[in-house]
Structure formats: structure tokens, C-alpha cells
């Protein structure tokens, strides 16, 4: 299993677009996703490299699928994204960094945007150089010393 993963990962990193299309058409994204659970950090890294290469190929092929990265969709359907998210807590620094890179590059994981849309992130009053919590803070008109308006 290890040797097959290494061989396919190498082919995915150096293959032509046609070769990548063929390999991916053989449904290899699922087995690579399953290898993310391996206790061997080297196999996890090889799997993430292969998945990253497949996702990059999917990004380049988006025009064939109405602007959608079909491989990213397949990873989500297979539960691979959840596995990659869990790897953000891995003790191996390389695995952590690679998981963050994949998530930021190919999946919508912008937590800061969710906080802002829910009103949890503080507003910023650039004129006063202050944060504003729980309100849409606007600066008082220029030349005004009013702090409150009743």
C-alpha cells in the first residue's frame, strides 16, 4: 500500500495533464483520502502532496466544469476535507502546515469572514484609532467634542 501511494504520488507530481486526467479518472482521490488516517506521518504527507496535486489539477480544469473544481467537491463528499481539517491539530509541523495550505487554497475555510458576518468581529474607527464593540461606531463630526448625542 505504501509503495503504491508513493508511486501514484510521484506520477501526480510529474505527470502531464493527460496523465493526471487518467489517474484521477481511476478514482484514486478516495484511497488517498483514506490514507490521511495513517499513523505514519510520511504516508500522511505523501497523501497530502498527492491530494494537493490533484486539487491543483482540478483548479486548472475548472473551465471544463462551469468554473467548479470537481475534485474539491469530491473531496468534500468523501469526508476528506474533515480529515484535512483534523490534521491541523497534528503534532507534526509539516503536516499541520500542509493541511492549512490545502484548506486555504482549495476550500472555503475563512472563519474570520463568518465572525464578521455574524457581527462578532469588532468594528474599527480609523479616525479615532479605536475598536468598536457591538455597534457601528462612527466618528463624531470634525471639530466636535461631543462624545454622546442624546
Short description:
The protein has 150 residues and is mainly alpha-helical. Helix content is 56%, strand content 4%. A hairpin with a 4-residue loop joins strand 1 (123-125) and strand 2 (130-132).
Structure explained in plain terms:
The protein is mainly α. It is built from eight helices and two strands. Strands 1-2 form a two-stranded antiparallel sheet. β1 (123-125) and β2 form a beta hairpin. The longest helix is centred in the middle third of the chain and has 20 residues, at 41-60. The protein is globular, with a radius of gyration of 22 Å.
Count of extended strands: 2
How many strands, which pairing sense, and closed or not: the largest β-sheet?
A: 2 strands, antiparallel
Q: Sum up the overall morphology in one term.
A: globular
pLDDT averaged residue by residue: 82
- Our measurement of the CA-to-CA distance between the termini, rounded to an integer number of angstroms, reads 73 Å
Number of helices, counting only DSSP H or I runs of 4 residues or more: 8
> Strand fraction band?
under 5%
Strand order, main sheet: write it out. 1-2
Provide the fold topology.
Elements (H helix, E strand, L loop, with lengths): L1 H13 L2 H9 L3 H6 L6 H20 L9 H8 L2 H7 L6 H14 L4 H7 L5 E3 L4 E3 L18
Antiparallel strand pairs: 1-2
Helix pairs in contact: 1-4, 4-7
Amino acid at each position: 500500500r505504501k509503495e503504491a501511494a508513493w508511486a501514484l504520488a510521484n506520477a501526480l507530481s510529474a505527470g502531464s495533464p493527460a496523465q493526471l486526467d487518467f489517474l484521477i479518472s481511476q478514482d484514486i482521490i478516495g484511497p488517498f483520502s483514506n490514507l490521511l488516517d495513517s499513523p505514519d506521518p510520511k504516508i500522511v504527507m505523501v497523501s497530502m502532496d498527492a491530494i494537493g496535486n490533484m486539487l491543483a489539477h482540478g483548479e486548472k480544469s475548472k473551465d471544463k466544469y462551469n468554473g467548479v473544481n470537481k475534485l474539491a467537491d469530491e473531496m468534500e463528499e468523501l469526508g476528506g476535507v474533515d480529515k484535512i481539517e483534523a490534521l491541523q491539530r497534528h503534532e507534526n509541523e509539516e503536516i499541520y502546515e500542509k493541511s492549512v495550505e490545502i484548506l486555504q487554497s482549495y476550500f472555503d475555510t475563512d472563519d474570520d469572514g463568518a465572525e464578521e458576518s455574524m457581527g462578532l468581529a469588532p468594528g474599527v474607527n480609523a479616525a479615532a484609532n479605536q475598536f468598536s464593540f457591538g455597534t457601528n461606531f462612527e466618528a463624531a463630526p470634525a471639530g466636535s467634542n461631543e462624545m454622546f448625542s442624546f
